[in-house]
Each structure stands twice: as C-alpha cells, then as structure tokens.
Request: fold
Amino acid sequence: MKKLLSYSVVLFVLTIILLLIIPLPAAMVDVAIIINMSLSMMILVTTMTIREPLEFSIFPSLLLITTLFRLGINVSTTRNILTSSGSSGQIIAAFGDFVLRGNVVVGLIIYMIIVLMQFIVITKGAERVSEVAARFTLDAMPGKQMAIDADLNSGLIDEQQAKMRREKIQREADFYGSMDGATKIVKGDSVMSLITTAINLIGGSIIGIIQSGDTIGNVLNTYSIATVGDGLVGQIPSLLISVATGMIVTRAVAEGSLNEDVSKQFMGQPVAIMISGIVLAVLTVIPGMPVIQLLIISIGLIAGGYYLSRRIKAEPTLAAAGALGGGTLRNFTGASEGEGEVGQDPNVPQPVSEEEYFKDVNNVYTLLNVEAIEMEFGYSLIPLVDESVGGRLINRIIIFRRQYAQDMGFVIPSIRLRDSSGLNTNQYCIKIKGEEVAKGEILIDYFLALEPENPEKEIDGIETIEPAYGIPSRWIRPEDRELAEIYGYTVIDPLSVLVTHLSEVVKQHAHELITRQEVIHLVENTKKVSPELIDEAFPNLISYSLFQKILTSLLKEGVPIKDLETIIESILETISDTGLPVKDVDGLIENIRTALKRTITRMYCEDGSMKVITLDSELERTMVGCLSKSERGYYLALSPDVLQSLINQITVQLKKFNSISQTPVILTSQVMRVHFYRLIDQFYPNVRVLSFNEISNNVQIQSIGSLTLERTSRKGA
Reply:
C-alpha cells in the first residue's frame, strides 16, 4: 500500500490521459470538476501563505498537471455535450443557468469578459513577470555568490551554510526558469478554453438542429447553457491557477506570507489611510453620492489611521528607553586584546599631558611597537565600531577570527582599531605591520548595491567600486533597497562591506602574519594530542625556522594548516627518504600538498566536479625547457613574447569563472606547479595553481579552457 501511494502522482497523470480517450458518465464528470476546483483553491491558498517561492518549488510541474487535468475534463464534457444533446452533468447545468439568467446574449458577454480578463490581464501579466524574474535571477547569480563568499569570509556563515545558500541560489534560478516556461502553459490553456467554447456552441448547435429536429431557439438555449456552464467550470479553476502563478512570481521581495506582509505594510502607512478617509469625506459634497456609506467608511479610515500613527510613535520611544541607556560616543585609540577601544579607566591615574607621559624614557619604547594588523577610521565611521551606540564591528571581527581559525588552522593576531584625523570622514584604511595595504570609503547611511552583468534598469545612486572584489556598485538610499533587488542588484549593508574587505585583506596577507612565536604556539598545541610525534620531530629533525617557512608557503597559496599532524608526518617521511639537511624545500612542500589533497580538493570542488584551466602539453614541455637554476633553486625563465601571450590567454580564460562560484584554478603537472605559480602570482594573486597529484581520485575534472603555446610566441621563444 505504501509503495502504491509513492506512485500516486504517476497514477493520477495516467488517469488524466485516459480521460482524453474513455467517455465518462455525467456523474463522474461532476466528481472530476469538483476535484479540479478543490486542487485549484488549494494551490492558490498555498501560494498566498508561503514566505518564499522555493517553499512551493513543485509549482511549475503542478501547473502542468492541473492544466492537463482541465484539458482532460474539457474533452470529456465536450464529448458529452455533443453526444448527449447538451447534457454533461449537474454542475455545468447549474453554472450555465446561474450566469445566463434566461438571457443568452448577456450570459455569453459575461463569460467572454471573464475569459478575456484572465487571458489579457492576469495570464499576460504573470507571463511577463515570470520572464523578467527569470532574467534578473540569472543576471544576479554572480553577485549573490560573491555576497555568500563575503559572508563566509567574514565568518558570518560556515562552509555548510554557504553550500546551502549556493544551492538555494541555483534552485531559484532553475525555479524561475521553469516558471518562465510554465506561464506559456497557462496562456495556452486560456486560448484552448476559447476554442473549446466555440466548438461547443457552434458544433452543438449544428448537431442539435440537424439531428434533433427541434427549433433553433430551443437548440441555441440548450447548447448556450451547456457552453457557458462548461466554460465556467473550466475557467474558474484556470483563473485560480493564473492568480496563483502571478502570486508566486511576484513574491521576490516578500518577508513573510502575503497576509503578514499586507497587514504589516498597510498598517505602517497611517498617513495614507487618513488621507484616503479625508478624500472620501470630501466626496459627500457631490450631489447624488451615498453620503451615509461614504461617511461611515471615511470615519473608520481616519480613526484607524490615527490609532496606528499613535502606536507607531510609541514603539520607538519604548525601544530607545530600553536599549540606548544614555551612552556617549568615545574616540578609539587602541584595542583590548585586538579589537575594541581603550577607554580611560577611572581607577587608573592618567598623565596630565602627553609631554609629561613621555618624560619617562621607558614610555617612549611603546612607540616602537609595530601592530600586526591595524584599521583606522574616519570620524563618520566610528558608530560602526563603538559598542556604546550599537556598533557591531568588533563582534563581526571576533566571528571572522573564529571562523578563519576553524577553516585555516591559524589564529589571526590582534587587530588594532583606532580613529584617525588624517582620513576623510567616510574613509578607512587597513595596515599590515604598520604599512597601508588597502583603503576604502563607506557611506554608513546608504546600502551598497552590486551591479549585475546586464541590469534591466539602473537604480539611482552614487557610483563606486566594491572594495573587496572590485565590482562596479552604487551607494543607494535605504528606501531603494527593495527596488534594487527587484532589478537584480545584490544589496549589502555598510558593515558587511567593511568586514568583507578586512577579511579579504587579512587572507591575502596571512602568510606575513605567522610569526616564530605563533609557530611554536601551534606546535605546542599539537603536542597536547600527539606528544610522541612532536618530540620526535622538534627540534632534532625539523627546525622551527624550516617549519615556519613551510607554513608560510602553504598559507600564501591558501592551503589550510589545520592538519599539522599530517604536515609533520609528511616532512618526516620526506626526511627519511632524502636525509638531512633538507635541500629541496620546494619538493618537500609539494609532498605536503599531496598529503593534504583531500583538503585542497574540498576547497575547489562542487558537487563532485572541479572546473579548471589546463596547460597544453607543448606549452608545458617548453616551460620545462626554460627552467634555469640559481643559487636559490630553479626558476622559470620565459621569453617576453611567450610570457605576454600567456598572460593574455589567462586574462581571457579567467572570465569563464565569473558566472560560477568556484575560485579560478589552473592545473599543471607537479614538476611545473610551483614554478608556474611564482610566474603568475605577481599578475593574478587570487588564482590557484594545482597539480594533478593534489586532486582526489573521486573528483571529476572539467576543463573549461586551455593555455597553449601560440605560433607567434614560438618564434619569439
């Protein structure tokens, strides 16, 4: 029984197909009509109660099934009308009598109005909305994927959540693409309804006049009732499905169910309600208007709007009294344990002046310290940092540090936050070891809208460039946020822009931040779980300087160092094969990367496949022949022509990664990997170069491009 239920939809569709072939008695047709109406009402109510379209992702397929069901019923009713002298069940007769009311012409006009209303207004509008939504969703995919990467980088979400959000974006694109096609089914259903109506009326009348011998008036009366009744029992469910289609494709910016959103947004506009009431009251001066009805509705609207306005004004006052607590703004002069502010502790004596403080020579030495990471702000950005006024930057940095430690196995050093009079009010800068490495500008009262590739319309705003990824963007007003999302823009709040930029800068310079002290700390932490391994390796076989060099190299290429046990075991294995001292550090690092291939594969693999750019065999042989040896080891010495050709090709091939969420990957042999990486790192620091040995065997490699040795370049080589 359970297995039979699992195939219930299949059996239902097969039954619908049989309706096209097997004649049904009038009583069975009535049952099918009732089921059709029930399904249509269920679908409409469902589309009005869901919070987002993906909660009803089966809608496109369901729309096809219900349309096929209606067509099957139409075939059965048409067969009965034409073969049973206009009789096809009680429901059709009841609908026909109710609409016609003894007047065939008026009844047919009302029926045509219902049909044309559905066809021209609802179906046509839903079709257009579906088409535009599908286009905007596809155009917005790269921006949404970048926003997910930004949240992942800032530590707001983990890998699993990022994967779920990427899947949701893909499902949204597939859903709206399906809806774009499904609306054509609704349109075709409306056209078919008109054709069926004409067949029933004209064909039935001809058959009745020829075969029954009855008068033309009686025949037209009989078949017009059957035609209108049949049309209505088909059009009402079709109208409900068309409305449901419009509902589900216009829910792009909804926050809750339709009932919740309508209540919330209408009740949030008390002024509009009161103005409407006043206008209705003014209409009572027009002669002949229903004064009593207008006054009742007018007074109700004015009273309701006044009540809502009083309630809205009271809510912020209560919230402010409970949340603010009268805090004051303070300047930032440093950070406690990395993030935050150093306020003046009333329990600690403060120097009278700066000159007096530096009279003590020991205090001068504090000026020599270089912070690992610093972030300076203009005056307008201080509210993002100051916790006393609701600033959340410190909390976001803490979340990012924790997430980065979990992902990469490296704890980011303390981040010093301070205000700076040398910056413009909306500017900030990021420093690594005392030197500025990045700078940006933020408008805290605006939102940043990332432009899609082909926007349907442009949103008004201040043009800028997103600081972390260099995407063309616009600073837009908060009230334009929903409109921008409808146009396909990805909208980000100012704090997320700041945290994303900081996280990307920290990742790019992580290899500069791992100190000898941090290396020793990591080793001691690993010793807690593997004391024998650490005692064997350090310091007799592996020096801390060599280990720091290895970890630095791995971090520079974005390889996690969390699995220190595997890294150390790989080093010991290489030492046992080659002996001490270690001369080929590059070869040692390549062996470590091979040992970490599952980790490396996971970072760039999606759904069991990895998209890569490969090197042509002839190009790779040429590069092997160009390897030159120096005191520090081998390096790749390509001619300027070959190098220029290679850079141009990489620029073209990297554009193929714009539409997917994966980091660009170039695949080479293990021999050439490190040399090729060093060659292109200065041009493309965000491109990852992997070797075949670093990819797990269960991963499907998809080559989306290839780098070749061009003919013009060979002559130069």
Summary: The longest strand covers residues 700-707. The chain is about 60% helix and 10% strand.
